[in-house]
Amino acid sequence: MLNNHLKERNPITWIPTTWFAMGLPFVALAAASSIMYKNLGISDSSIAFWTSLIMLPWTLKPLWGPFLEMFKTKKFFVYTTQVFTGVLFGLVGLSLKLDAFFAVSITLLAIIAISGSTHDTAADGVYLDELTPKLQAKYVGWQGAFYNIAKVVSGGVLVYTAGELEKQMGIASAWMVVMFLYGAIMITLGIYNKVMLPTGGEAKSVQSVKESMATLKDVIVTFFRKRNIWFSLCFIVFYRFAEGQAIKITPLFFKAARAEGGLGLSTSQIGVLYGVAGAVAFVLGSIAAGYFVSNKGLTKKTLMILCCFFNIPFLAYAFLAITLPENVYIIGSAVAIEYFGYGFGFVGLILFMMQNIAPGKYKMAHYAFGSGLMNLGFMIPSMVSGFVSDYLGYREFFIWVLIATLPAFIVTWLVPLAKPEVEPTSTEIQQEQNMVSQ
Questions:
Q1: Angle, to 10 degrees, between the axis of helix 279-296 and the axis of helix 133-152?
Q2: How many domains does the chain have?
Q3: Alpha carbon distance 336, 327 (integer Å)
Q4: Against a cut of 0.70, is the pTM above it?
Q5: What is the spatial distance between Cα 235 and Cα 357, in angstroms, rounded to a whole number?
Q6: Which of 170, 186, 204 is the last residue of a domain?
Q7: pLDDT tens-digit map of 47-78
Q8: Other beta carbons within 10 Å of 326
């Protein structure tokens, strides 16, 4: 039942700003920071390791979700973390002028990850508590749209801006300005959402730390008692094994000089590639996959097709690493191919978790727990990818990525599938995809 506050605030007044605030810092840490550190002279191995490690809070966020129920309202955690994240981005910008800029800035980015993952947990709670299932389905498209707009702004527009400013004021000053822009955007969103966001319920679901810990223990125990859970965990970890390595190194490969085996692209060019070709292809792939799985359902055959779409497009990056084309349209086409496959194939993982991980007593908690472990399976390969790339070189590294896709095909072929009680609709699949990508 909708509360009185929602009657005063149309969901369209707070969903776009909230989901934009989810996507902006996540992409800043996952992608934009890699390009920044590359330009500032940090090694690929250090970039890949540390910018992957700081993403750990998005894996662990299900563990502190119950504790957020004990204090204040979900709205409070949403707008305060937005403002706090904005302030931290400002401090990151200032740190770039220090001699120990890498250690200081990466620590600040790690704190941003804690703040951002807490924000996402609270925001999901507001959405689920304030909207009926019918309204959740109605506004899920707005979620996805503004989360992806944030990706374009963070990984495209702001990276392009950094590239243009680098030509005028130098690398450190350029990225300091861009970090200030990140901060200004987040603080503005926090001030706006303090006024517009509904409460998401009062702090009354959990009465004590003991009760919260007991609930968390039951969530974990029942999760690992699920049928075929170890097969399922192998699937969600190894499905993204190759992706975890390729995605972290690709922008570094784009930026590296041709003498080093890279493509020698400018920061501005990389911003355009991800902000235009990558973003459009990802959205189209996601839409196409929604129609595909809604018609076919989840079977061994459809899951293998989705796995192929997800992993085979890494051939495009191997092609770039072997041929080193200078034509930016060829490079952009490779990015579009990979991102279309990513958008299409990722639905296989979402649908699998909906039908094989989530069902049971704690549907949403188990889905969040599964998605957290999935993120861990992505994070660990990302952490070591820089060392592998440094050892092999870019050309051999992307050939290795193709070999690293084999575990995904093996686990997809072997994993048992549960028969769902009710087939999910394409809208439900799209909603879950938006939630896990955060």
A1: 150
A2: 2
A3: 15
A4: yes
A5: 11
A6: 204
A7: 989 998 999 898 887 777 666 666 677 889 89
A8: 11
